[in-house]
Design goal:
The model has no long low-confidence stretch (mean pLDDT 91). With 133 residues, the protein is mainly α. The longest helix has 19 residues. It is flat and about 60 Å long.
Length: 133
């Protein structure tokens, strides 16, 4: 997150002044930029492409649990939480059955208390405003 911010603003502000404001050492930024991609990140890219193919092949309805089972059937040794993490990073989400459950319905004809504070809930001084439900 901070590295992308530094990359965006490094031309006009410089790396060292940005790092000073963020209170991180410039060497931290440079070491992150020169570090090779981790094995997990490289595998996530490959698995992400496979998940995307399976997700599209199944009409975009599979959630993490069904996608995990589909990946296992495809011969990939992958964990359910790993599938969920990769799907979350890619913005993929399965379809849920049913609609939203409404447990309470407001009575439109009931008497309501008047709004004496006019939706201003911050007080200028202690004990100046008391609001209850």
């Amino acid at each position: 997150m901070m590295v992308s911010f530094i990359d965006t603003n490094r031309i006009e502000l410089g790396v060292e002044p940005i790092c000073a404001m963020l209170q991180i050492a410039p060497s931290t930024y440079y070491s992150f930029k020169s570090r090779p991609v981790s094995a997990r990140a490289a595998r996530d890219v490959v698995l992400g492409a496979m998940i995307k193919v399976l997700f599209d092949a199944n009409y975009g309805v599979y959630g993490a649990r069904k996608m995990w089972k589909a990946m296992r059937r495809a011969g990939e040794d992958i964990g359910r939480d790993q599938v969920a993490r990769i799907m979350r990073q890619m913005g993929l989400q399965g379809v849920r059955r049913g609609g939203k459950v409404f447990t309470t319905r407001a009575d439109k004809h009931a008497n309501r208390a008047s709004d004496l504070v006019e939706r201003r809930f911050s007080a200028e001084r202690p004990n100046a405003l008391r609001v209850t439900v």
